[in-house]
Predict the 3D structure of the following.
Amino acid sequence: MPVASISPASVPAAVNQGPAATLIYDDWYPALRTEKLHAGKLAKAMLLDTPLVLGRRNDGRVFAMRDSCPHRGIPLSVGWFDGEHVTCRYHGWEFEPCSGQCQLIPSLTAQDRLDATRIYATAFPCEERDGHAWVFIPSAGSGRKGENAELQQVPELLKFGPRYRTAHLMADLPCNVDHGIIGLMDPAHGPFVHQAWWWRSRASIREKIKKFEPILEGFRMSAHAPSGNSAPYRLLGVYGQPVETTIDFVLPNRRTEIIRCGDKWFSSLTTVTPVTSSSCRIDVIAAWNVFYRVPLVTPIAKFFGAKFVRQDQETMIQQAEGLRHNPSLMLIDDADKPAKWYFALKQARLDGTGKHPMAGPVELHWRS
Ligand code: FES
Ligand SMILES: [Fe+2]
């Protein structure tokens, strides 16, 4: 089923970029929505400061290459694609796009000894899942990732049955990925940034106690009954069954939220992806079977989802104004504890120590 995407707004060009973040390479990131990949067309994307050209081969397979010809560096995206080969516009070298292998150098004569097939453009592992083109960006100098390279699993949105509806939302954020991620996991901004009758208001602030436990390269907010003060969760009460939510955060950038209520479920995967070291993009993909039969539920869900994401985006555009001057910042307990874990987990990944900041399950208290 094709999924329409909504982008709440693009970031005004006048917003300057703030401080850069260290990026995590050797992992999968969503580069663009695959609905943008049409037969015979090339599409551009930027991911972790890496310019990419993406496309879909005639056999349906998606590919992602560095948008740069290995001969003289012109972007391959200005060349041609016939569904099988990407042809450089400068001297016509032809590349097989999934492997990057050069298969033709038109200027060679019978006397030339150069074997074109020993030349490779940079092709990155690329997989289509949940409407995202996921691209694996290796760290510099880690060598070419061939088509059979052993890599982590491609992230996937969890679904709990064959019948469901889906939606996608995205927004560009003018801040680095660290600010995007800690903004995403921050519980204390809800009543201020997202105040609205259908979500929650300042007046509804009350103390929350949440249990967290360590998981591999991340942490889980253990299954709990969701906040009684948010209308969307209250709506699920119509099913008359206990409602349970689990939220996981896992490096490098993934937040999974699962809400279950009897055999009804809602599942979402939110990623904050570095576009450059000082800008990022948030994508939310969701699937659900709650209110499956209610007409208009998808457009309504998208309307409110887009509004929610736009509120975060507007706040981060304002925050970017402040961050331009490189202020010193702080993280406080307990509301910013998940942000502290994020930074510690990231450091452990970058150092290769694998050390987890949590010794075991903990309970956090905050008001939101
Ligand atoms: S620059 Fe691409 S073929 Fe020469
Ligand atoms: Fe938010």
